[in-house]
Fold each of these.
Amino acid sequence: MGDTLLTVTELTMRFGGLTAVNALSFNAKRGDITAVIGPNGAGKTTVFNCITGFYKPTSGSIAIAHTPGASMLLNKLPGHAIAKKGRVARTFQNIRLFGGMTVLENLLVAQHNELQAATGFGVLAILGLGKYRAAEKAAIERAKYWLAATNLIDRADDPAASLPYGAQRRLEIARAMCTDPVLLCLDEPAAGLNPRESQALNDLLLKIRADGCSLLLIEHDMGVVMKISDHIIVLDHGKKIADGTPLEIRNDIAVISAYLGEGDDDDPDAPIAETLAAAE
Amino acid sequence: MAYALQQLVNGITLGMIYGLIAVGYTMVYGIIGMINFAHGDVFMVGAFVGIIVLTALTGVTSVPMGILAALLLSAGVCALYGFSIERVAYRPLRGSFRLAPLISAIGMSILLENYVQTSQGALERAIPVAVPGGFVLMNENGFVVQLSWMQIAIVVVTLVTLGIFTYIVTKTPLGRSMRAVEQDAKMAALLGIDTNRTISYTFIIGSALAAVAGVMFLLYYGVIDFYIGFNAGIKAFTAAVLGGIGSLPGAVLGGLLIGLIEAFWSGYATVAYKDVAVYSILAIVLMFMPTGLLGRNDIEKV
């Protein structure tokens, strides 16, 4: 659709002698769903961890353009500022909700900064006055919007840990959206979902895109990837081996050989060609 | 019967003070997983600020205003101490191995004790009874059960303090961010919460609570020295563990239990062995409930 939102340039991440990501460069466009796929151990999650400040990259840069032309280096921001200033949010492969807090509280924590700014050092919050009351109302409204979008509105006051698995995944996405991101990074959001939940996830992701937030997606479920992605980046052994539209990727020789192995007798882990064909 | 009632009153008063200190231990443990051994000494500093303020206010006729001034000033000064201690002794060691901040905490504790000893003198300091009298609950064959005004004041002040504290933790954005950092600091940071700042607030609040406990202790016993933090700190720490470290209601419950055990043991057995009784009960509880009375039984997921 639009211009470039995220620019990753020559990103390298080493852990001791292991190079998890090697001189990777790619772009994600504003308003796009960009998928990052690749065999296990290709370095997808490491890329995410660098973008979201979990790791400091060994070298290279990651820049985000909140408005066309403007650019901010994410790898220079301290951890908590990635969400606040960088406006990048993420979810995890293994769910990391605040299990002891209610569903609504999880969403309010994500709006901490707006709320904290309105509390006037806590005094207004204690008295429940003025600006704070308005800010809290707005925060609850936004939480409600995402609860409705993720179909969790009737569970708002339950502890997050008591939700079923699929609902916890949706709550993670809702929580990330409450930080008001321009880029949402999802690490295997469809993992462990049944086909119906997976369909609902597709709809949710498309709605998020329609609301103006771009997405970066790691996913193994080719049904999800092929159906909703605008752009796909394929990694193998920390390097980009392909980059293009779903149609281009489906027919890319390098991708197929990365997944199937290059003619040696190893059993393929994931029969990608069949999965790709089935997804059509 | 009357004797038991008197011990109950004494035990609850003492337990409230322990509970207030224990909350500080349990908060810090919850949020950064370390035992802040200097916390007992912040309590001691609180008592000393209290005595300085009350001495300076000699001649002021309104006793409640004097006490309120002592409470607020002491809480403010101790909040500053708590903030600085975290900043100087613990934050630089974050990410270091687990024992490093613990050793640093012990160092901080010794530093505070010696600093107060040098600046305030090693001798006991005493204040006259601020609020004499009370009312008689029961008179059984000449044994008078008395509930002193001071005891009532201690219970009321503690309950109000804990009430404000509970409100902050459960209802305000600050409390939510504290709980979030406690559960998953990295995730909280990803959601835009400044974890360092949240940890600072935790120390500030915990230290202010310890200061309130310190002033209460001063008013109740009337005598303090630079070493009171050690004993009270260990007791409060025990209270936090007994109630389940990391659990806020647990800390208050543990404090009350320890106060009651101490009072009843001193009343019915020997005063000399009251600490033995406290720690024996701690050991027995932990044998059967390793996470304490209200501790969460978290199974770490991998």
Amino acid sequence: MQTQTQVQDPTMAGRQPILMGRGLVKRYGKVVALDHCDFDLYPGEILAVIGDNGAGKSTLIKAVSGAVIPDEGDILLDGQKVAFRTPTEARQAGIETVYQTLAMSPALSIADNMFMGRELRKPGILGQWFRQLDRPRMERFAREKLNDLGLMTIQNINQAVETLSGGQRQGVAVARAAAFGSKVIILDEPTAALGVKESRRVLELILDVRSRGIPIILISHNMPHVFEVADRIHVHRLGKRLCVIRPQNHTMSDAVAYMTGARVPDTEFETA
Amino acid sequence: MSGTDNFEAVVKERRTEAVAEFHEDKTLIKRFQHALHSAPSLVPLIVLMVSILLFAGLVGTRFFSAATLTLILQQVQLVGIVAAAQTLVIMTAGIDLSVGAIAVLSSVVMGQFAFRYGIPVPLAVLCGLGVGTALGTINGWLVAVMKLPPFIVTLGTWQIILATNFLYSANETIRAQDIEDRAPLLQFFASTFKIGADENGRGGATFTFGVIFMILLIAVLSYALRSTAWGRHVYAVGDDPDAAQLSGVNVRGTLISVYALSGLICAFAGWALIGRIGSVSPTSGAELNIQSITAVVIGGISLFGGRGSIWGALFGALIVGVFSLGLRLLGVDPQWTFFFIGLLIIVAVAVDQWIRKVAA
């Protein structure tokens, strides 16, 4: 087993990962979901995480987003050791997650959902004593963020989220993450529930968010989507990182073969 | 990029139409459905107006008088206050079967503390309010922390609180005359003022402090639910607790605060109950449970949580009040009241389901 700091992608030599996992272990009873797993995310990249069902990729993502506390191992954000106990703590550290379920309240408005759990209050007595929300400021901000991502075909920011289409909802969820995620954005199966056209729009959104310099972790089963947008692909197998590949050097069937164990990669990292 | 399906490229290149398009529904019914979706208390308000006009037509103009209409307000004040508490709980997709029991036990505590122990009346009232809040908090703790279903929790606490009420009070009523002489503060909510009465004090609009309190309470809660983060969290928790949790809402704290507040409001209802019946009676208020749930459901508040406006609960209570008084003035068998209320409940739930379909 390699020592902690040596495990690094040689092509990324000299660069500091923004988010790093070292020797992560998580057991559920007798099941080992994470088995001394390492993980690296570099600034400004889209890192796809692929793996068979039960490979432990959701556990890995939950560990870095604070939804699961690993039994062993370290998570480093910007080189600093962090230990999130809740998703809220991870969020406060700048890691935003877009869950597959989107985690939105369907009956509430777009603006309400974007600010859920971090509402803005009016200044002065109204906010301090009457706890009044600053609706105009929240709505302006939500509108701006949706505009930034080219989502302003949504006319009414006070529209209930349940009246939006699947793609629009995903767009709002990504906009929420992009608005508040200062360091890392995690997207869990963002295109799984969408049609072809809506998937396209979401992929464009993902590239758009990266162009703002925010690194993205993308979990997806959709190989064409992964190969289209990812800079590097983390292949997860049997609770740990099997290898990291670059989409331009491999075919999709290679990736699936690694993922399922049909083929064994030569090295953990490829030299580009 | 080998293996990319061809249709993907087609869509990518020739995408002319916007994906996230939003178009207005054209038909009148669809628009109405959308209006109801954004203003859920509209249905009960319309039903209330129609039923007032209906009974005004049937009974005659005396039904439309300020005296009759304010009499209805007085008759529904208790149900209205308890329905406000029930609304909060139902909005979190829960139900509180112990509201009536908490109200009665709180009123008994106020009475017994003042009369049995000679505690100053204002302090006894505070103790009653404290007991109500504490009981609500226990409900909340069992639901939020122990993760027990609200129906079962409050079914249990309902029996426990009611039994405690009888055991503690020894089934003893404090007479209205004694309260009037020695502790008039307990009947505070029965104090009235009149607007527009003639010189003999007849006719005109009569308001009790209980009615004023009910309206103020619902106005304050409506503000809190709509314009504060806490209110948004109540809706979010009722809508989808997992989503709310992941969005950073303190689900546990929100739930406990809702049940505790419900307990406090029920204790106020207990205080108003003393004003309404004059005495402190451990057997009173038994029907508040079902009446409050009825008002909430007729008020268009979804039993599945996360939807509805608290004004709907007031309108729901008033609809029941209008039907009971109207039918009584018509001289028909009072069973017809229950008959129509039953119909209204089913219609209200059907409308709720229809409004939900707006999402689809």
